[in-house]
Design brief:
Blueprint lengths: L7 E7 L5 E3 L7 E6 L6 E6 L6 E2 L1 H4 L7 H6 L4 E2 L10 E2 L5 E7 L6 E12 L2 E14 L2
Antiparallel strand pairs: 1-10, 2-10, 3-4, 5-8, 6-7, 8-9, 9-10
């Protein structure tokens, strides 16, 4: 898992086998698989709540990596409801939202995974993978 600090261009979303994990399904970690759109290889993603990822704000702060508009247009995140604004302007499911970069294990294409994790209501912890997107780094 890596952070991203340079401008990128999203080139497409790839499906994940499972995107929602409830309560104990996410502990100690949640695992899913995505298929590389370049070479077709299956890749495993493992997310450990409170250990994996970087704050989504790092991507859209001052349009450093991606603009807010592009993130919304690509369906990476949604606008946060006023009552949950303390989690940031853009979130997934109005919960703390994180991201990380991963590479295809075969062809090393670059992907970004965005997910949220938190208590949606008392006794209901949800980890939601918004998706996995292939991207290219801009020069």
């Amino acid at each position: 898992m890596y952070s991203i600090s340079e401008k990128i261009n999203i080139t497409g979303k790839v499906p994940v086998e499972k995107s929602s994990f409830i309560n104990d399904e996410a502990l100690p970690s949640a695992t899913t698989i995505f298929t590389c759109s370049h070479c077709g290889s299956k890749n495993t993603i493992t997310i450990a709540p409170y250990e994996s990822g970087f704050p989504i704000l790092q991507l859209y702060h001052e349009d450093k990596v991606l603009s807010k508009d592009e993130m919304l247009q690509q369906g990476i995140v949604n606008g946060t409801s006023r009552s949950m604004f303390h989690f940031g302007e853009l979130t997934v499911n109005n919960l703390p939202t994180l991201y990380f970069r991963t590479d295809c294990s075969s062809c090393h294409s670059k992907y970004i995974c965005v997910f949220s994790y938190g208590e949606k209501q008392p006794g209901l912890m949800i980890l939601t993978i918004s998706g996995v997107w292939k991207y290219e780094q801009l020069q």
